[in-house]
Amino acid sequence: MFLTLLDLAGGFAFALSGGTRAVERRFDLFGIVFLAFVAATAGGIVRDVLIGAVPPAAIASWPSAAVAVLAGLVASRARGLIARLATPVTVFDAVGLGFFAVVGTRKALDAGLTPVMAALLGMLTAIGGGIGRDVLTAEPPMVLRREIYALAALLGGAVVVLGDAVGWSNGLSATVGAVAATGLRLTALRFGWNLPRG
Amino acid sequence: MFLTLLDLAGGFAFALSGGTRAVERRFDLFGIVFLAFVAATAGGIVRDVLIGAVPPAAIASWPSAAVAVLAGLVASRARGLIARLATPVTVFDAVGLGFFAVVGTRKALDAGLTPVMAALLGMLTAIGGGIGRDVLTAEPPMVLRREIYALAALLGGAVVVLGDAVGWSNGLSATVGAVAATGLRLTALRFGWNLPRG
Amino acid sequence: MFLTLLDLAGGFAFALSGGTRAVERRFDLFGIVFLAFVAATAGGIVRDVLIGAVPPAAIASWPSAAVAVLAGLVASRARGLIARLATPVTVFDAVGLGFFAVVGTRKALDAGLTPVMAALLGMLTAIGGGIGRDVLTAEPPMVLRREIYALAALLGGAVVVLGDAVGWSNGLSATVGAVAATGLRLTALRFGWNLPRG
User: Fold this and answer.
1) Please, which chains are in contact with C (at least 3 CB pairs closer than 8 A)?
2) Is residue C90 predicted with pLDDT exceeding 80?
3) In angstroms, rounded to a whole number, what is the distance separating the alpha carbons of residues B2 and B178?
4) Which residues of C lie closer than 8 Å to A, measured between beta carbons?
5) Over 90: is that where the pLDDT of C14 sits?
6) Which residues on chain A are in Cβ contact (under 8 Å) with B52?
7) Where are the domains of chain C?
8) What pTM value is reported for the model?
9) What is the residue-wise DSSP string for C106-121?
C-alpha cells in the first residue's frame, strides 16, 4: 500500500513534468495528457518490452493512465500552483527517480538479467520517461546534458544488485537503494553538481 | 477483401503524408520511402510490440512495405498531383484513422487488454505513424498540438468496446466505430475545430 | 573469434560516432556514453524486439555496453585523436555497416521472416543506431537525407537472402554480403555518390 502510494506519487511528479512541458510548448489538451503519460510511463514500458513482459504494466492496467490524465489536467489548469509548488514537485520527482530505479532493477533481475545490466535497466526505467518527453518536444534529452540524474538512478540500481550479493532482503536493498538514489539527486540539486562535459 | 482495400487505402494515405513530408525536408529517395513506411506502419508496429504480437504484421509480410514504396515514389514524382488531390488524400487519411483505430482496438481486446486500455491502444495505432513521422523530422508531433485527430480515433475505439458491452457483433461495432471516427475527423476539419490549449 | 572482433570493431566505430556527436552537442559524460551505446546498439535492439528475441543481445550481456563506455571515454578525452583517425573510423563504420546488415538479416531469417523482410530488417539493424543517435540530438536522421548508406546495407542483406536461394553456405553468403555492403559504402564515399532527392 505504502509502495503503491510512492509509485503513484513518483509517477505523478514525472507526469507533471511532461504536462508542464506540453503547456509551455502550446500543445493542446490531448497533447498535454499524452506527454504526461509518456513522461510517467515510457521508462517502464521500454523496460517491460526489453525483458519481454508484455503488455507492459502501464498499458495492462489503468492507474498510470489515470495519474497521467490527472497530472495533465493539473498542469493545464494550475500553472501558478505548480510554480509555487516547484520544490515539492522536485522532491517527488527525486522520489520517483529512486523508486523507479530500484523497482526497475528488481524486475530486470527477476527476468534473468545479469546484475550489471539489471542496474542499467533500472536506470533506464527511471530516465526513460524524461527522454521520451524531450524527444516528443524535439529537444536533446536533458538527462544527457547536465545535472546528476541518471547517475543517481544507477546508484539506486547498484545498491539493489550489491544488496543481493551480500544477502540483504529485497525490502532492505530496495529501501536503501531508493533512499540513496533520491538522496544523491537532491544533494546534487542542492549544490548544483554536474558531471564533466567530457 | 473490402476491408483489405480500406486498410491499404488508409495506409497509402498515411504513407503519402510521410513521403510528402520527406520531400519537403529534402530527404533523399531512400528517406522518402522510409518515412512513408514509418507513417503508414509505426502505430501498428508499436501496438503489436506492446501486446506481444511479434513479428508485427507490417514486418511479417510485404503489402505494407509495398504500399510505402509506391506512396514514396508518388510523393517524390508527383508533388503537383498530390497538391491537386489534397482533398481526396485528406479523406483517405480520415478513413485510415477510423479503420486503424477500430482494428487496433479489436487486436488489443483479443490480446486480453481491458476495454479502456484497448481503446487507448487503438488510438495509438491510428496516431503512432504520424508521431513517428514528426519525430524523424525533428518536430513536435502535430497530433499533440492541434486539430481533432487523436480524439476522433479514441471515439472509434470507444464505440468498439461499448459495442462489445451491449452485445453488438464485431462487424457492426467496427463499422459504426470507423464511421464515427472518420466522421468526427472530417467534421472537425470542415469547421476548423480544435481542442483547448489547456 | 574473428567474427566477434569484427562485430566489436564495427560496434566501436558506431559508438564513436555517437560519442563524438554527444561531445559536439555539449552533452555531459553520462550523455556521451549513453549516446555511444545507442549508436552502437539501437539497430540490433529494435531488430531483436521486432522478432521477439528478448532480452536483446545488447541488453543481455555486457560487451556492447563495455564497448560503448570505452568509445564514449575515447570520444570525450581524445577528440584530436579521432579527428586524425577520421579515415580509419570511417572504414570501421563501413565494416560495421556490412557486418550488422548480414548478421541482422540472418537473425531475421532464423526467426522465420520472409527473405524480403529479412533483408529490410538487416538493413534496419545497420542503420538503426545512427537514427537513434540523430533522434536523441533532435536532428532529422542523416541516413534519410544523403549518401549511400542504407542502400549499401540493403545490398548486404540481399546478398544473404539470394545466397540462400542459390544454395550458398551461410558463411559464404555472409562474407560476400558484408564485403559487398562495405565495398559499396566505401566506393560511394570515395566518389561522393548520393541518391536523387526524389
Assistant:
1) A, B
2) yes
3) 14
4) 22-23, 25-32, 34-35, 45, 49, 52, 54-56, 59-62, 65, 72, 75-77, 135-138
5) yes
6) 52, 54-55
7) 2-191
8) 0.95
9) HHHHHTT--HHHHHHH
pLDDT tens digits for B102-134?
999 999 999 999 999 999 999 999 999 999 999
Q: Which residue has the cell 524527444?
A: A135
- Determine whether the interchain pair B195/A137 forms a contact, defined as Cβ–Cβ distance below 8 Å: no
Q: Could you tell me if the ipTM is greater than 0.85?
A: yes
Chain B residues whose C-beta is within 8 A of a chain A C-beta are 49-52, 111-114, 116-117, 120-121, 131, 135, 138-141, 143-146, 150-151, 194-198
Which subunits sit against A, judged by 3+ Cβ pairs under 8 A? B, C
pLDDT digits (tens, 9 = 90+) for C147-172: 899 999 999 999 999 999 999 999 99
Instruction: Name the one residue in this structure whose C-alpha cell is 530496495.
Output: A174
Q: Is C43 exposed, middle or buried (0-12, 13-18, 19+ CB in 10 A)?
A: buried
Q: What string of DSSP letters covers C127-172?
A: HHHHHHHHHHTT---GGGTSSSSHHHHHHHHHHHHHHHHTT--HHH
| Grid cell of B139 as nine digits | 518536430
R_g of chain A, CA atoms, integer Å: 16
| Helical ranges in chain A per DSSP H | 2-24, 29-51, 57-60, 63-77, 79-84, 86-110, 115-135, 150-165, 170-191
Contact present, A156 and A98 (Cβ < 8 Å): yes
Mapping DSSP to helix (H, G, I), strand (E, B) and coil, where does residue A113 land?
coil
Could you tell me the pLDDT band of residue C197, with boundaries at 50, 70 and 90? confident
Model pLDDT, residue B169: 96
Whole-angstrom Cα distance, residue B102 to residue A26? 29
**pLDDT at res. C93:** 92
Q: What is the pLDDT of residues A52-85, one digit of tens each?
A: 999 999 999 888 899 999 999 999 998 788 888 8
State the cell numbers at A41: 510511463
